[in-house]
Design brief:
Number of domains: 3
Shape: elongated
Largest sheet: 6 strands, antiparallel
Strand order of the largest sheet: 13-10-7-6-16-17
Radius of gyration: 29 Å
Number of helices: 22
Structural class: alpha+beta
């Protein structure tokens, strides 16, 4: 069923060459592996495996959207290697190396050694591959298992046996326990098996009853995790931190760009120049397998993303990457020139080999040079936190609120952000009154640092309270975190702008509380100054939000209108608070957004020349809704 033109013997030179390619790919994936900081997902990985108890690890994974195999493997290695950036990332490089070797083996089995080598080169230099080979997540393991499962599938279909069926079942089970997108790799195998089983002219048709066996075994082995999978899909199918991606042509174009490096024409040329297309009949089953493997995952994810739940992320498609490399390698392997072409004394086959080498080198160069264009650097958490720690005195007080799974919390564990006198607000939600009392305990401290997220009301309240009688001696920000030092004496009021278009006039009053009742109207005064000409594409939103930040109890939205630069605009919005609103602590959030796209202008703290990002919501005042 699967033709192979490979020779039974292996030369030592070929083995050394392949080993050299694998070593080069491994060095490419591991060079300067600690240079970039861990980002959100990697910090979550470090937190998930941090507990010494498997039960805790499984509970944390269950609260996310992924299965547990990768975290169990990394957690086991963590016991010996620790949780440094290098220790967290090197297993991914190892998994990617296994995937590369398996891709070579699969290419050699399906076609020949040369095709396997070309596929190894193309895959090992693909920016998609290199990026996730350097990240402490499960995606390189997903890719490696996708190739291994496909290799075992090919072996099982070529010569069915119970042992081969069982080995294939284990590979499929590992896929499902690594990443749920593995189901689409299995689906591509099953689709190929059905087509070849019932449309093949070989004796395989008489053995149709063997077809379901490995899939039944894999399904049975996955059953213990099935209730958790269903729960995860109901609660957060896209993960608690992921940003939904729409199913549209822009998303498809972005995927093609990442897969081809923007030079898809180079991958089509080999099929035009050579005999790859005429020989497809000879390799019909193999080509069908690769095409199905390549297409099923992205099409299925995008379809589910459109019609059922927002689950698509480009990284989930990495399992089909080897299929693309093998298809392109097949085309490059069969580059040829017309027999009647005048070439002098140079053999046509030698010229064709030279064209193949040039195209492979060109594709490799394009893929490597496009890396920085397609994959921007990760946020510099370590650099930012080291810069904050450097001027900080040992006994300086610090008010912090870091989610345990955040990059800030990871580098706190590594570098000691909260050393000395500390006030940790992360352990529960506090009311405005409680926050005020806690911060007041640090009134006598000469300097108070804050390490706080900008998307919580208590962070804005802390900053406003400290800003009343202190000057700002240090400021920095990254992501959704800000790092400030407030020194006793002097005054440097916090100043805020919306996207460097509008300036918020007045002192930040987030530490002051208004009182109102359900069923009444709450009116406030807002003064904004335009920093440039503003057209009528923007609206103003004032929202009453509860202490969790999830419930919008009342809102006022109105067009901002066109205004000239340096014009002062006074607003007096009133919120009608429904009678049904529960009593308790709330706060007012002010946003400026484009009414056609709903995109919010970023909030920037601009009391110095270099602005610091404070998210996209300015939290004005606390509100106590009474009965």
């Amino acid at each position: 069923m699967f033709r192979s033109a490979s020779h039974p013997t292996k030369s030592n030179a070929a083995i050394l060459f392949i080993a050299g390619l694998l070593l080069f790919a491994f060095l490419l994936a591991t060079v300067d592996l600690r240079r970039e900081s861990l980002w959100n997902d990697e910090a979550w990985t470090a937190w998930a495996i941090r507990s010494p108890y498997v039960r805790d690890l499984l509970q944390r994974v269950e609260g996310d959207v992924h299965p547990p195999l990768y975290f169990l493997l990394l957690g086991g290695l963590d016991r010996f290697a620790g949780d440094s950036v290098l220790a967290l990332r090197w297993p991914s490089a190892l998994f990617s190396l296994i995937g590369l070797a398996a891709t070579y083996a699969l290419g050699k089995r399906l076609f020949d050694r040369r095709t396997g080598i070309i596929a190894l080169i193309l895959l090992g230099t693909a920016s998609f591959f290199v990026y996730y080979a350097r990240e402490a997540r499960m995606y390189s393991l997903l890719m490696a298992l996708a190739v291994l499962a496909t290799l075992l599938y090919v072996r099982w279909r070529a010569k069915p046996s119970l042992w081969r069926a069982f080995a294939y079942s284990l590979a499929m089970t590992a896929l499902l326990y690594t990443q749920y997108a593995g189901i689409f790799i299995i689906a591509s195998h099953l689709l190929h098996a059905i087509v070849t089983q019932f449309f093949s002219r070989t004796q395989l048709r008489a053995k149709w009853y063997r077809l379901p066996l490995p899939y039944i075994v894999a399904a049975i082995l996955f059953l213990p995790w099935l209730p958790t999978f269903i729960k995860q899909m109901h609660s957060n199918p896209n993960g608690p931190l992921a940003i939904p991606v729409p199913t549209n042509w822009a998303t498809v174009a972005a995927l093609i760009l990442i897969l081809t490096g923007g030079n898809w024409g180079l991958m089509v040329v080999p099929f035009v120049l050579g005999t790859a297309i005429p020989k497809m009949r000879q390799y019909s089953s193999t080509i069908l397998l690769l095409i199905v493997w390549l297409l099923v995952t992205p099409i299925s994810l995008l379809a589910l993303n459109m019609w059922f739940a927002p689950i698509y992320q480009v990284r989930y498609t990495i399992g089909m990457l080897p299929a693309g490399a093998l298809l392109v390698a097949y085309g490059l392997r069969h580059i040829g020139l017309p027999q009647g072409l005048p070439t002098g004394k140079i053999p046509i086959r030698l010229i064709a080999s030279g064209v193949t080498i040039v195209l492979v080198a060109w594709l490799t160069y394009v893929q490597l040079t496009m890396f920085s264009e397609l994959w921007p650097p990760k946020p510099a958490w370590e650099t930012t936190i080291r810069s904050m720690i450097s001027p900080r005195k040992l006994l300086d007080a610090t008010i912090s609120d870091m989610a345990a799974y955040s990059p800030a919390a990871y580098y706190d564990r590594q570098l000691g952000v909260r050393r000395g006198v500390g006030l940790d607000l992360s352990w529960r939600l506090q009311t405005p009154e409680e926050v005020h009392k806690l911060v007041s305990k640090l009134d006598s401290e000469p300097s108070v640092w804050i390490v706080l997220p900008v998307n919580t009301a208590k962070s804005w309240q802390v900053a406003a309270q400290l800003d009343q009688n202190r000057s700002i001696g240090y400021r920095s920000g990254l992501g959704n975190m800000v790092f400030y030092r407030f020194d006793r004496g002097g005054s440097t009021d916090l100043q805020f702008e919306f996207g460097q278009r509008l300036h918020y006039n007045g002192k930040l009053l987030a530490d002051q509380e208004l009182s109102t009742q359900a069923g009444q109207q709450l009116c406030v005064n807002i003064t904004l100054e335009t920093l440039e000409d503003v057209d009528n594409s923007f609206s103003v939103g004032l929202h009453l939000v509860d202490i969790t930040g999830n419930v919008n109890a009342a809102q006022w939205d109105n067009g901002f209108g066109p205004h000239k630069a340096h014009e002062t605009v006074a607003l007096a919005p009133c919120l009608n608070i429904p009678q049904s609103v529960p009593t308790g602590p709330y706060h007012l959030e002010l946003t400026i957004y484009n009414w056609s796209t709903l995109e919010r202008l970023p909030v920037l703290e601009t009391s110095i020349r270099t602005p610091v990002a404070w998210g996209d919501v300015l939290m004005m005042q606390a509100v106590d809704v009474k009965p």
